Write the structure tokens for this entry.
Amino acid sequence: MPKSDNADPNTYDVRIFQALRRVMRATDMHSRRLSSEYQVTTPQLVALHYLREYGPMTLRSLAEGVHLSSSTLVGIVDRLESKGLVQRERGHRDRRQVFIVLTGKGNTFLKKAPSPLQSKLAEALGSIPEDEQAAMAEALERIVDLMEAGDIDAAPVLHGGAIQTPE
């Protein structure tokens, strides 16, 4: 096959792919650090932060807020509840409704917990103008749209490794 200009490693598609792989690897390494140092996963930490910011809510509302499926979030909430960081409470008006509530222990935990973002990234984002941060967010959201990945759970834990293909 003849060599084309697209085979140049400096083309945009290769650069974008390599940048995404580095982001995935850094995210995976940060998630592993959170798990080993704080005994919490990134999705658990994101759920805790969301509850602190918006208060008690149903599992469905929390799932929508953190961009995870309700079925994925059930396991996350179960583990947070077993650690005493959240609790489930029946609604006062409608006893069929169950709300996820951040506990005092959960609030205390969040005071010492790091950002779900890698600390270098969190610091760097804080030092650049808001319009530049918005442009980055929009570019990343556009990549999601281009990949038609908008319906994929946004679990903040990425697993690297070999891709398994069906035989």
Q: What stands out?
A: DSSP finds seven helices and three strands in the chain. The radius of gyration is 19 Å. The first strand starts at residue 57 and ends at 58. Residues 155-167 have pLDDT under 50 and may be disordered.
